[in-house]
């Protein structure tokens, strides 16, 4: 099984984080979302109740915040198409990317009910690193998760053992900012941690630079681990791959599992719903007025 479902401990952690809502009320909210989407001329008419439920839970069952992230989810795929085009499993960029990097999702959840997404560089002689491809691969993995379960939180584990300086330098400020926007604004998940392991000497300075393009809440959750011992304080050993001193099995199996599993979404990607920005209603303009504090902002039709 690629993803082990939450156990009783995880369910309790989820309730403690205020994700719980009476199922009847949730169904009413899903009805409201379907109705709202049907009235947005620029958004696709989505009726997949399971998928919409995942968005609702990810936004802590807040209907207005869910609408906002759904709007961003569809529009960003048009505004930044280079991060979302050609996403089927037979895409050429995927075959190219796996020569220098691999991705996986650990089957088990952390005690806080977070998923762990591992991205690692591998030793290669004929591969060419493509930062855009690595970003697309991660977004494709996140899409896979969101289509199958509510993602309460996501922990990134970045293994830099075979990472070259040129790899990190290819993440331009624009690409980094766009990736952060895709994750922070256009998905309902929460980034609970970003952990670097096997870091080369040059990593600390570059990570501090990349932080400039990340939301402050993510900046504060970045940790560089010189040894695996400190990693275990955040991710239990029994869910980590053998390669990181864990007991969960080989990381190659997890990588092969997720590569095979994402093939299930090929048809969805071929007909991926997107926004039609030409039909997006014009937003009312904001007018700032400072008249002894009487009027600060007025909506002008």
UniProtKB/TrEMBL annotation:
Organism annotation: Aphis craccivora (Cowpea aphid)
SMART domains given in the database record: SEC14
InterPro entries recorded: CRAL-TRIO_dom, CRAL-TRIO_dom_sf, CRAL/TRIO_N_dom_sf
Molecular function as annotated in GO: phosphatidylinositol bisphosphate binding
Protein known as: Alpha-tocopherol transfer protein-like
Gene Ontology CC annotation, any one: membrane
Every CRAL-TRIO domain range: 66-252
């Amino acid at each position: 099984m690629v993803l082990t479902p939450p156990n009783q401990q995880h369910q309790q952690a989820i309730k403690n984080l205020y994700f719980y809502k009476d199922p009847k009320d949730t169904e009413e909210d899903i009805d409201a979302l379907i109705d709202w989407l049907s009235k947005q001329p620029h958004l696709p008419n989505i009726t997949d109740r399971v998928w919409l439920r995942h968005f609702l839970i990810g936004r802590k069952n807040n209907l207005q915040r869910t609408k906002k992230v759904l709007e961003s989810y569809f529009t960003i795929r048009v505004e930044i198409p280079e991060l979302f085009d050609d996403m089927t499993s037979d895409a050429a960029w995927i075959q190219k990317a796996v020569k220098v990097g691999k991705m996986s999702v650990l089957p088990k959840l952390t005690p806080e009910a977070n998923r762990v997404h591992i991205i690692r560089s591998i030793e290669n002689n004929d591969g060419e690193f493509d930062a855009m491809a690595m970003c697309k691969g991660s977004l494709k993995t996140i899409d896979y998760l969101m289509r199958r379960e509510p993602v309460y939180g996501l922990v990134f584990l970045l293994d830099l053992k075979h990472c070259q300086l040129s790899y990190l330098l290819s993440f331009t400020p624009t690409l980094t900012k766009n990736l952060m926007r895709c994750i922070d604004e256009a998905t309902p998940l929460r980034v609970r941690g970003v952990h670097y392991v096997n870091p080369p000497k040059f990593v600390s300075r570059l990570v501090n630079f990349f932080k400039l393009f990340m939301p402050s809440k993510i900046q504060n959750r970045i940790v560089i681990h010189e040894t695996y011992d400190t990693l275990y304080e955040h991710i239990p050993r029994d869910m980590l791959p053998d390669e990181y001193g864990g007991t969960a099995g080989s990381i190659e199996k997890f990588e092969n599992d997720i590569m095979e599993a994402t093939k299930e979404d090929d048809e969805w990607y071929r007909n991926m719903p997107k926004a039609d920005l030409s039909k997006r209603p014009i937003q009312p303009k904001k007018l700032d007025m400072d008249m002894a504090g009487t009027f600060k902002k007025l909506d002008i039709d």
